[in-house]
Amino acid sequence: MRWLYSHRKQLTVILILLVTLLLFPRLRTITVDDIINYTPASPFWAALSFIGLYCLRPVLMAIPNLVICIAIGILFPPIQGILISLIGIFCETTISYFLGWKLGDKEVTKLVEKNEKVRKFLSSNQNNDTATCFLARITPLPIGLTSMFFGAAGMPWSKYVFASVLGLAPKMIPYVLAGSAIDNPISIEFLLPFGISFLITLAVFIIYRKVTSAGVN
Fold this sequence. Notes:
- By secondary structure, the protein is mainly α.
- It is 79% helix and 0% strand.
- The chain contains 12 helices and no strands.
- Helix 6 (78-103) crosses helix 10 (143-153), helix 9 packs parallel to helix 11 and helix 11 (157-179) runs antiparallel to helix 12 (188-216).
- The chain is globular and about 45 Å long.
């Protein structure tokens, strides 16, 4: 038991890798229809199932986010779908954060070094503040790995989760809304959310760059 406790961090990493390797081949090809077919008929249990999928993503990173969002949009009205997605984002980023906090800086750094995009971003944005976390969310970086980094770095959870949800929402909500109009992909109901999301993300990115540039000067 003492040996297990002293090597708990290494064993956690090994467990994550084993589970991912076993399930990745199936999960990386999962489709919207696959998720819908296995979703309970009850709206309550269906909502919990989707939130559960978000909770699994920190370990099983192969589950595509956009597939989950579209499936939610198909099965739920827009407001309910967005709420379920936001709760899911909150759970996913929180679990990843505390997983990184538990593993510690050394173990997470090893994982970061294996991902060139994450490594370059974090090396050029070394301030573990709200703005850096938000920027990491609006860029196409792995949610789980960046979340573990901020947890291991000791960023305050309240600031971290606020920046995470705020940064991820514009990227995920359009897929939820598009799910309700999936039968007509050239309709305004399908295309408009993506346009609004792009404009919001672009505007926030420009503001962030101006603020950080002013701070440097």
